[in-house]
Amino acid sequence: MRDLRVRRTLEEDGRPYAVRFLSQGAQKRASHRALQPFGQVPTQEEGDLALFESGAIVWHIAGRFPGLMPTDAAARAKSLVGLCGADTPEPPIMDHPIATLFEADKPWSVPRLPSVRARIEKRLGEAADRLGDAEWFGGSFGAGNLLMISVLRIIDGQDMLRPWPNLAANVAHGTSRGAFRALADHMAGFTGTAPDEFLEWQRQMEAKAQIT
Ligand SMILES: N[C@@H](CCC(=O)N[C@@H](CS)C(=O)NCC(=O)O)C(=O)O
Questions:
Q1: DSSP assignment, residue 102?
Q2: Ligand 1 pocket, residue 54 CB under 6 Å
Q3: Shared fold status for 2-65 and 73-182
Q4: Is the peptide bond before 111 cis (omega within 30 degrees of 0)?
Q5: Rounded distance from Cα 158 to ligand 1 centre (Å)
Q6: Closest ligand 1 atom number to CA of residue 52
Q7: Residue-wise pLDDT tens digits, 44-55
Q8: 2-65 — its CATH code?
Q9: Phi and psi angles of residue 54, each rounded to the nearest 5 degrees, phi first
Q10: Which residues contact 75 (CB under 8 A, 6 or more apart)?
Q11: What are the domain boundaries of the chain?
Q12: What 3-state DSSP class applies to 51?
């Protein structure tokens, strides 16, 4: 999921890049932990430079592309605020797929949903107030909007954005950008020759989702 924000940034940048897919579980191997100590994705390698933490990677890539990150120091700092700002709604939003998918078979998932939704709605309301009538947070599309849209997309399709048409429009405009074709590429990576570990993980997730 968080690799997509990196790939969207790379697509905006327009330079060629290569993707290395990991089969489910491979992220916990020592070779990957050397790149990402928590055994997670994404990571980025560029020559001798190896980075992890999707926000830092997006910051690094966007920093050389004025369309995503202004060059003026103050505007750049504000852009970083926008980028980190997506960190506030993300935890409650991520709780939604955890409750409805990843831990759907746990006894706490269904009782937990109302509070998960309430915490999401609180943050969505605050974000919608800040966006107001504007098309983009901060006045123009940039790394901050790219990240925020990547977060809001997690619940897009759940009808949860419906009370806030300005947020829904922000997501719709962002996802209509050519750079979001990275998503299609990403899915193609899963549908071509999915590794056995991924198919097993998918089977387990589907079984969990059927329990609720
Ligand atoms: N703060 C990290 C979070 C990365 C993260 O949560 N990655 C998930 C995929 S979206 C992952 O690798 N999960 C597997 C795990 O934690 O074992 C970042 O933004 O890069």
A1: I
A2: yes
A3: no
A4: no
A5: 22
A6: 20
A7: 999 999 999 999
A8: 3.40.30.10
A9: -60, -40
A10: none
A11: 2-65, 73-182
A12: strand
Q: Is the CB of 27 under 6 A from ligand 1?
A: yes
Residue 4 burial by Cβ neighbours in a 10 Å radius (0-12, 13-18, 19+): buried
Q: What are phi and psi of 111, to 5 degrees?
A: -60, -25
- CA–centroid distance, residue 42 to ligand 1 (Å): 7
- CB atoms under 10 Å from CB of 125, counted, come to 13
Q: For 169-180, what is each residue's pLDDT tens digit? A: 999 999 888 877
- Across the range 35-39, mean pLDDT stands at 97
Of all protein residues, the one whose alpha carbon is nearest to atom 1 of ligand 1 is: 53
3-state secondary structure at position 159: coil
C-alpha of residue 40 to centroid of ligand 1, in Å: 4
| pTM of this structure | 0.86
Please choose, from the candidates 86, 65, 75, 63, the residue with its C-alpha nearest in 3D space to the C-alpha of residue 145: 86
Rounded CA gap, 171 and 149, in Å?
A: 5
Q: Give tens-digit pLDDT for 63-87.
A: 988 889 998 999 899 888 888 999 9
Query: 82-141 pLDDT, tens per residue?
Result: 889 999 999 999 999 999 988 999 999 999 999 999 999 999 999 999 999 999 999 999
Q: List the CATH code of the domain at 73-182.
A: 1.20.1050.10
Is the Cα torsion angle 35, 36, 41, 43 positive or negative in sign?
negative
Residue 148 in this model has a pLDDT that exceeds 90? yes
